[in-house]
């Protein structure tokens, strides 16, 4: 036997050992669709698939980040154990009360009093409102966004941060490294933050020369702002012009359509707890809140609960939140998501609701800004339409980027989480659940605005789609499950 035969036999034995090992390990603690996608890649292309699986295949973080998140959840649960399931003055249904308990079990954060002050869709109005809140800061400002850019549209906000520092306010700022670095002016942006005296740090940094390495597929996608523990913003806006630094986007009118919420009350402390955890993970420093006492026993007119999620939460709180809400529905569900790639449980919840007579509406963009996710999303349209789901296509070239859901006239959630595999497992997200006030009504009014400019996709129209496009859709659907 010559050396070429030896190499061939070794290669074949190694390939079959890889496949044998993969079959018994890949499906562990993983949804079936993801397991199937990874196994197909490994079985057909083991030399590529197996190293890729070891690099990015796990949907969870391990080590220091996981330990800190678990400790934070325990501390939050312990310090809020004296609080009731929900504040007095609001009466959730039995199903909603169960959901509040579930969220608390998974994240350690209770349902507390919260007041929706304003809902913002226009980016300039959003940035102006944030700047105004910062202008009133006396003690500290905590800023955390996936994408940031100091451009003409965000200049007022960052200038307000600089002025706050100048008058003695401690401004802490977190931004995702990979999320922000690809936009124009990245180097000068960092220097401007430093020159302004802002205490800023990267989230999930990838700097191997500085021995700072994170899996490139795990990102922090949260978007939040807290001022003095009194007012907070959550939603889908990033701190960047709505054309995302692209002259081409600006020329063709391609703007991102977002939605953010300004709140006051005890819920602000919950938003602050999410920031404080991320701040400690990235810096090792404590971000002590100015106000720590929650108002117990004071009747509330509206209640809110913050639901963080991400790789540090193996129980997938955002996915369970969405599925539970849809199963609760008795009359109508309205979902707005830019990237809609549901897993089996979410797809079953949506179609089941439609089959039992609930009016289910899905608002998505006519064209997605990401090729793989856009086509993967399209692969679900036939199943949804056959179940009776109403799909509203927001007109291109705009990108519908808002992320919220309402159920009946009872409850709503809004925040940073998409309804896709990445948001369920690979990116840190934060959602706000609200009921008892007028948040649901405000979001339903926003639905009406989207509905008035969108067109409804019909099953008959969809069945006319060319075979070639459906083929691409299905391939991308498989690729989207590789996690």
TrEMBL record:
Its EC number is 2.7.8.-. It comes from the Bacteria. GO terms for molecular function: cardiolipin synthase activity. It is a multi-pass membrane protein. The keyword Membrane applies. Signal peptide: none annotated. Gene3D superfamilies: Endonuclease Chain A. GO terms for biological process: cardiolipin biosynthetic process. The chain crosses the membrane at residues 6-26, 38-56. GO terms for cellular component: plasma membrane. Its main location: membrane. InterPro entries: Cardiolipin_synthase, CLS_N, PLD-like_dom, PLipase_D/transphosphatidylase. It is an enzyme of class 2 (transferase). It is found in: Cell membrane. Residues 216-243, 396-423 form the PLD phosphodiesterase domain. Keywords: Cell membrane, Lipid biosynthesis, Lipid metabolism, Membrane, Phospholipid biosynthesis, Phospholipid metabolism, Repeat, Transferase, Transmembrane, Transmembrane helix. Pfam families: PLDc_2, PLDc_N. The keyword Chaperone does not apply. This is Cardiolipin synthase. It comes from Kineosporia babensis. The gene is cls.
């Amino acid at each position: 036997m010559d050396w070429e035969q030896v190499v061939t036999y070794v290669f074949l034995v190694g390939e079959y050992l890889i496949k044998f090992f993969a079959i018994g390990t890949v499906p562990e603690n993983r949804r079936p669709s993801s397991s199937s996608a990874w196994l197909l890649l490994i079985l057909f292309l083991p030399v590529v698939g197996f190293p890729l699986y070891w690099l990015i295949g796990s949907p969870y973080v391990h080590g220091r980040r996981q330990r800190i998140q678990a400790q934070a959840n325990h501390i939050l649960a312990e310090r809020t154990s004296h609080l009731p399931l929900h504040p007095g003055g609001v009466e959730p249904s039995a199903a909603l009360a169960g959901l509040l308990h579930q969220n608390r079990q998974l994240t350690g954060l209770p349902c507390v009093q919260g007041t929706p002050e304003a809902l913002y869709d226009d980016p300039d109005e959003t940035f102006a409102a944030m700047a105004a809140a910062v202008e009133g800061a006396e003690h500290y400002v905590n800023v955390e966004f996936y994408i940031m850019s100091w451009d003409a549209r965000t200049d007022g906000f960052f200038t307000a941060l600089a002025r706050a520092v100048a008058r003695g306010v401690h401004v802490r700022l977190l931004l995702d490294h990979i999320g922000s670095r690809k936009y124009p002016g990245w180097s000068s942006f960092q220097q401007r933050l430093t020159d302004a005296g802002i205490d800023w740090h990267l989230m999930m940094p990838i700097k191997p020369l500085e021995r700072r390495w994170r899996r490139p597929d795990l990102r922090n996608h949260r978007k939040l702002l807290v001022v003095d523990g009194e007012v907070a913003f959550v939603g889908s806006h990033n701190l960047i012009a709505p054309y995302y630094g692209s002259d081409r986007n600006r020329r063709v009118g391609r703007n991102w359509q977002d939605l953010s919420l300004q709140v006051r009350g005890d819920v602000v402390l919950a938003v602050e707890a999410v920031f404080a955890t991320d701040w400690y993970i990235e810096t090792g420093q404590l971000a002590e809140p100015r106000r720590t006492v929650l108002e117990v026993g004071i009747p509330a007119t509206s209640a809110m609960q913050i639901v963080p999620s991400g790789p540090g939460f193996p129980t997938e709180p955002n996915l369970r939140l969405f599925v539970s809400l849809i199963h609760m529905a008795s009359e109508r569900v309205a979902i707005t998501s830019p990237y809609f790639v549901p897993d089996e449980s979410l797809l079953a919840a949506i179609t089941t609701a439609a089959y039992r007579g609930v009016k289910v509406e899905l608002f998505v963009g006519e064209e997605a800004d990401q090729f793989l996710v856009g086509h993967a999303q399209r692969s679900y349209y036939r199943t949804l339409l056959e179940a009776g789901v109403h799909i509203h296509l927001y007109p291109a070239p705009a990108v519908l980027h808002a992320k919220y859901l309402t159920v009946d006239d009872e409850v709503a959630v809004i925040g940073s989480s998409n309804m896709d595999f990445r948001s369920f497992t690979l990116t840190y997200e934060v959602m706000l659940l609200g009921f008892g006030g007028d948040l649901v009504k405000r979001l339903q009014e926003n639905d009406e605005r989207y509905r008035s400019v969108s067109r409804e996709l019909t099953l008959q129209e969809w069945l006319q789609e060319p075979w070639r496009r459906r083929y691409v859709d299905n391939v991308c659907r498989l690729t989207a499950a590789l996690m």
